[in-house]
Design goal:
By secondary structure, the chain is mainly alpha-helical. It is built from 6 helices and 3 strands, in the order E-E-H-H-H-E-H-H-H. A 3-stranded antiparallel sheet has the order 1-2-3. Helix 2 (37-64) packs antiparallel against helix 3 and helix 5 (132-159) runs antiparallel to helix 6.
Length: 197
Amino acid sequence: MSAMAVSKSPEYPVRFELDYQEQVSRGLILVRWLLVIPQLLVVNVLSNLAAVLAFLAFWVILFKSRYPESIFRLVVGATRWQYNVCAYALFRDGPYPPFSFDAGAYPHLRYDVSRQERYNRWLPLVKWLIVVPHYVALGFLVFVGVFVWLFAVVAVVVTGRFPRGAFYYLVGVGRWGARVTAYILLQVDAYPPFSMR
């Protein structure tokens, strides 16, 4: 049985969707984090690269009101790779996430950001400050999410099923985080909604 956690805010320019897998391997959920260690090393490098590229984009936006498309696509790809690895480690039995930036390479997660033609050149100067309420809210949600995930792991080990409510909560936190990440990486000007949908 498969279902999809779908974003309910289609007007926001960040898409984050993950397919629900009800039947999960009882043993694999305990070791998937070990299996992704090679991926996590790559993700660490890519996260640093995305931060450097966003810093370069900051200057281009400041002077030209544009986010260079090649840099934009690299940052989206690096972020997508990270979410693919997280989706596998936390939720999915398979397939193993590909070493790839490409949309659709990992079929169970869909992440993309719509690029704007023009950007507000002054907004990057204050985004880091006006996003603080999101960090506070997300900090609390992630704290609760740790316990929700631990509950889900116990449920999977006992029943072989990932609790649907836990899945939707965790994906909702991920969706909110994805929007905030795109905002702070200067990819969108629209202020993220305080929403897990």
